[in-house]
Amino acid sequence: MRKIALFALLGGGLFAVGLLVGQKTATSEKTLVHAIAFKQVEGTTEQQIQEVWEATRKMAGAIPGLKRVWVGKVTNRGPSYTHGIVMEFENEKALQDYVPHAAHREWEKIYFKVRTPGSNTVDVVGE
Fold first, then answer.
1. What is the C-alpha separation between 54 and 70, in angstroms, rounded?
2. Distance (Å, whole) CA 66 – CA 94
3. Which among 83, 58, 57 has a CA at the least distance from the CA of 72?
4. Binning pLDDT at 50, 70 and 90, where does residue 77 land?
5. How far is C-alpha 15 from the chain's CA centre?
6. Is 74 helix (H, G, I), strand (E, B) or coil?
7. 3-state helix, strand and coil shares in percent for the chain, rounded to the nearest 5
8. Which distant-in-sequence residues (6+ apart) come within 8 Å of 71 by Cβ?
9. Which of 18, 36, 70, 107 is deepest in the core (most CB within 10 A)?
10. pLDDT band at 119 (very low <50, low <70, confident <90, very high)
11. What CA–CA distance (Å, rounded) separates 83 from 87?
């Protein structure tokens, strides 16, 4: 009888945990995402791309309101775009403050050397 009760209790507990995990849904952040896709200039070296990535990461520590950054290769846009940068800002004001910031101006000096004109940028405001 005790074994049956123990198995029933364990089974009920596992069912409850599974139910809670199964009900978990994705949530939307109330932040702003600034995403850039660009094509590298012909002849750009891997070292130059790494310099852009490092400069991008440095901005996250230097610009108020810039929370996180992601950098990497674009995998689903054919030859149009080769690399991407995504930045998460606390809000739209933080993005506006980023544009004239000295760290952003320094980043542009490095970034503009490796990208062809015509990058694609979108901003998404979380709801």
1. 11
2. 7
3. 83
4. low
5. 35
6. coil
7. 50, 25, 30
8. 52, 53, 56, 57, 83, 84, 85, 86
9. 107
10. confident
11. 14
Q: What's this model's pTM, rounded to 2 decimal places?
A: 0.76
Both ends of the chain: CA-CA distance in Å?
53
Please state the separation of Cα 86 from the chain's center in Å.
5
Place of tokens 């320094």: 106
Give the SS3 label for residue 16: helix
> Higher-confidence residue: 118 or 49?
49
Domain ranges across the chain:
32-125
Q: Please answer whether residues 64 and 19 qualify as being in contact, where contact means their C-beta atoms are separated by less than 8 angstroms.
A: no
Q: Per CATH, the architecture of 32-125 is what?
A: 2-Layer Sandwich (3.30)
Q: What's the chain's Rg over C-alpha atoms?
A: 22
pLDDT at 57 over 70: yes
Q: Which 3 state secondary structure label does DSSP give 52?
A: helix
| Residue 124 tokens, joined | 């998404």
User: Rounded to whole angstroms, how far apart are CA atoms 3 and 13?
Assistant: 15
Backbone φ and ψ of 80, nearest 5°: -60, -45
